[in-house]
Write the structure tokens for this entry.
Amino acid sequence: MLPFRLLAFFGLIAGIAPPVRTAEIERNFWPGPVTQFDSRGEPASVEVLGPLLFKKTNAEGAVSSGARPFYVQTRNPNGELSQALFIYPLFAYAADTETFRWSIFELVKRSGRKENAPPLKGSFTDPDVFEVWPFWFSRKDRQDPAASYQALFPIAGTLKNRFGYQSLSWTLFPLYVRSEKRDAITTATPWPIIRTTRGAATGFAFWPLFGW
């Protein structure tokens, strides 16, 4: 009789105890929305048609969303756009609180500081750069104006600290090219036929006949 009475007692307790509701972690209506919930019961991610349409919030509060493979974007917790990809590598954009960068096929590129960003202090540099490969190159360095340049290929211009050279200049390429590397200056008129080197190194070449 005793075991029966114990079972009846615990059965009565179980009957009057309120049911415990488990937290929902997923709501699945595939191929419609599939929603994942965080520990607080808030939606953490939503996907539609598998991974094609999505929206996801990470632990830091940034929100990523998009329609793969066409467009993907991320916004920081303040709602500001921090990254965007449109049919990558067709178009890519990235930014933080002070700087930005965008490119089209990595051939047309622009980077610099945002208009509302505070000015840099000390010896740090963060230039504005705009390039259209392989024709236009420009750099505007507010901290070091001597490092700024503009160049239009093949017409005329000068690049500084690019492609392994301290400076690289041309006028009506290939009629005149001047390069400086490790304090050795090489002049070609026209390139690469007649080349003269002076400064930290010396030399002369008449390509393809001889050179030293």
